[in-house]
DNA sequence: CATGAATGAGTTTTCATTCAT
DNA sequence: GATGAATGAAAACTCATTCAT
């Protein structure tokens, strides 16, 4: 892993935990054991690093969520189930405090900065459209009521997950996310 | 309105828009046209103001959402519909950027500070339990499938709303929240 | 006791403990349970209060040390002994931390402000000259070696007491002052 | 000299003159012609600097007073005389206003802060014990009355010097310190 | 590439003082 | 006389960024 990538990875962890604005360059320097010069060699500014972090994050999610889960050869129902499992698994007991890395940034940065906002928006759009595609597939396979609006339902599912993570973070209790996942599974016949 | 309340109200607006940490005392001073000394005459610290803001916010929501909507004499179905209407109305086109005042703070502060976290948690708990009570009432009146778990469903509803607001904020599009509300109405026979 | 005197007395205690500069008007207002308006009714400024405090202090010492001890009808030897006793008694175990009220101000303010400096200087001069007079009397009564220089010895005695209090304050141990007093008594045949 | 040491040295001078609390970071910044950032690059806080200043001060005194004078090969009488000379020389006419750097801090900080207090206390203890050792040596060499208590006398000598400096500072007159030194020399047969 | 010294604008906070009531 | 709201200068401290080495 290149030094630059190493810095991004470390910064991602800190930003996930403290938020972008509350994370100082020094926090990153200390955690990465590097000097100022090296940081500014790789990044032109804190903002530049922030963007790199979102890109790295979105790319990771793209790989794990979109490519490995949604674009796998599994059938739609299984894909949706895996997506829920993966989401739940991302928030283990110890990390339940941190919340969703993208969701946090969505809230912190959306009004603050267009570039951040759009990058995050694109990820959510991809996620929603993959969920919608899977739902459509389920409808086609007669596993789901054909009168539902798949796109809208996909938005609702992603909203529920993000809202569930928000509540989980606030209550410091992973149970609430599991509950939300259960409800989704029941409502969309994923069991 | 007392000067202190005036400062809180102004600060609430700014914090809703920029977040607690990104809001500087100077932002508030300028918006309220007061001097530093006056601010510290009413509040011992920025943190003290932050707490006052959350309390004010939670109290307002308690009045508007819990007391005026849930504890009104309307029947359960109507109450839930009103709650959804009220939520949607809170995010007009112009304010769609800001997101949920409590939700934003939940994400920004939950890991950072216990006092903030607990105050917000208590509000969410109240909200969820009122939704659960309304759902129970609907079940009793045979308006809803009796096999559903009302508490869990209430959590899912609140999660969906908060998640919907999060997506709306990120997409800068109020439509997504309206969509989520529709789905809730359909799923819980509120139409 | 007038309100003004009450404020002075309270301020004296706080200044003795924290020093003049480190004492804030608020400290005094809180301790005296009065408002800003009342304070500025009696004093034109913090400096004005400071001066009043030194004057009050010096006047008290003048009464207790100069008038009641040195200008009593006792014989010189007894007067000097009483002076030492009184000094020691002023620094009980609990107050050994505070040091000498005048000495502290002498160090804190002498370079800072001429008015303070001169007021304190006058007190020390009075003290020294009274000690000198007592020593002279002892010499005349053949209780002391006639070759000593009474004025210089008086300076040395006051220096020893003030230095002893300084060390006592720093060591937080009243013993050291008692030791110094003993030495003085032996050196000047006061036992 | 390193920049850090340079800042300490400059700060020592200012603190000697104004006291720790009355010295502002800006005072130091201006005197040293550096920016805030640089200051906080070397010190974590004003307190941190304060501690560094006391340590630097105590170390200097340790070198000049303890090592170079008391631990020299001279005989006891000469050592004590040198100590008095050195003390007097430290307070030239121009600097007579400032008083004793350690003594000032002893009075300003002893009640305020334990760490300062203890560092200063240790210096005074060292000084006292060296004086005591020298007196003991003089007693052994029959230059001094064997019935005196050397430790107590050492305390008295240091007290006299510190008290003399206090009076000198307050009277703005170096003469008084010279007088005190004379008295010490006579009392302990140092002439 | 890398270090960390240096800059300076901005942040939170304190506090003596004034002023309207 | 008395209250405490209001002012504003200055304090301690933070932090992104630049620059000499």
UniProtKB/TrEMBL annotation, chains A, B, C, D:
Residues 24-43 bind DNA. Transmembrane segments: none annotated. Keywords: DNA-binding, Transcription, Transcription regulation. It comes from the Bacteria. It holds the Pfam family TetR_C_13_2. Residues 1-61 form the HTH tetR-type domain. This is TetR/AcrR family transcriptional repressor of nem operon. It comes from Peribacillus huizhouensis.
């Amino acid at each position: 892993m290149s030094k630059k990538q190493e810095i991004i990875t470390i910064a991602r962890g800190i930003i996930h935990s403290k938020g972008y604005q509350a994370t100082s360059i020094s926090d990153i320097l200390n955690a990465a054991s590097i000097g100022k010069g090296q940081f500014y060699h790789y990044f032109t500014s804190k903002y530049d690093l922030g963007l790199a972090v979102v890109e790295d994050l979105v790319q990771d999610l793209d790989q794990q969520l979109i490519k490995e889960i949604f674009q796998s050869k599994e059938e739609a129902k299984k894909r949706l189930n895996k997506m829920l499992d993966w989401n739940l698994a991302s928030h283990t007991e110890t990390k339940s405090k941190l919340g969703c890395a993208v969701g946090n940034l969505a809230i912190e940065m959306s009004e603050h900065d267009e570039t951040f906002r759009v990058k995050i928006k694109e990820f959510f759009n991809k996620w929603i459209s993959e969920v919608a595609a899977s739902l459509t597939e389920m409808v086609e396979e007669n596993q789901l009521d054909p009168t539902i609006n798949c796109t809208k339902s996909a938005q609702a599912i992603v909203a529920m997950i993000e809202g569930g993570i928000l509540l989980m973070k606030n209550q410091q209790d992973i149970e609430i996310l599991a509950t939300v996942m259960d409800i989704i599974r029941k409502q969309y016949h994923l069991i």
